[in-house]
Amino acid sequence: LSHILYRATGMTPLQFADEYLFGPLGITTVYWLADRFGVECMSGALYLTPREMIKIAHLMLNNGSWNGDQVVSEDWVDYSTSQIVEQPYHDITPGYGYLWWISPEFGFYCAQGRFGQRIFIIPEYNIVLAFTCHINDWLIQPWDYFIEKFIIPAVLENNTQTSTSTETSETTDLPIYSILLFSTVGIGVIIIAWKQQSLRRFFKRSNYCSIKIPNPNCMVRQSNCLLR
């Protein structure tokens, strides 16, 4: 894909992304490994911060729109996140679109990076998630457990409080649960120890990971600064 893009546009993947994706989203902290021809590898080796991963997730959740600008066409978002082929050996994400893994059972689609880097979009609940960790064993896939047992229940539990707080908050085009998840960048991080009995069956050795879920005490306006 890297060289197809380069031949079609005359731009490397990073140059193309800077102009048409990273630039509009305000993504500046990027490292992307290039081959010996100076063309970045589109199969991986892209390094982003969790905050910038969340920006991409929010763009997809908003059907390609960012702060009122259509960065990616809505048709492409819909098409690329539709199941094109089946991946029966993937229990959680048995579907695959155009570079997006799809889970009909859990109602999300996601981007998957090496060692457990994940971007999740759950349209039904207006949720976006970014996971960063270092898991060497690809058989360890706890994301469905985290989403089903912790994240979605936390969102639903705060539904009433969130609805009340938005009645007096300034207007924004951010979906409410996306706002709450944005506001957790730096303020709503829960550290879950692998040693805990309820999670022990997912991991072979002691470690830890940061998981971002809605902070029940945060207000909508707290997250607005992340999008300016």
From TrEMBL:
Pfam families per UniProt: Beta-lactamase
InterPro entries: Beta-lactam-related, Beta-lactam/transpept-like, Diverse_Enzym_Activities
Gene3D superfamilies recorded: DD-peptidase/beta-lactamase superfamily
Keywords for this protein: Membrane, Transmembrane, Transmembrane helix
Domain Beta-lactamase-related: 1-136
Segments crossing the lipid bilayer: 174-194
PANTHER family in the record: BETA-LACTAMASE-RELATED, BETA-LACTAMASE-RELATED DOMAIN-CONTAINING PROTEIN
Name this protein carries in UniProt: Beta-lactamase-related domain-containing protein
Organism: marine sediment metagenome
Lineage start: unclassified sequences, metagenomes, ecological metagenomes
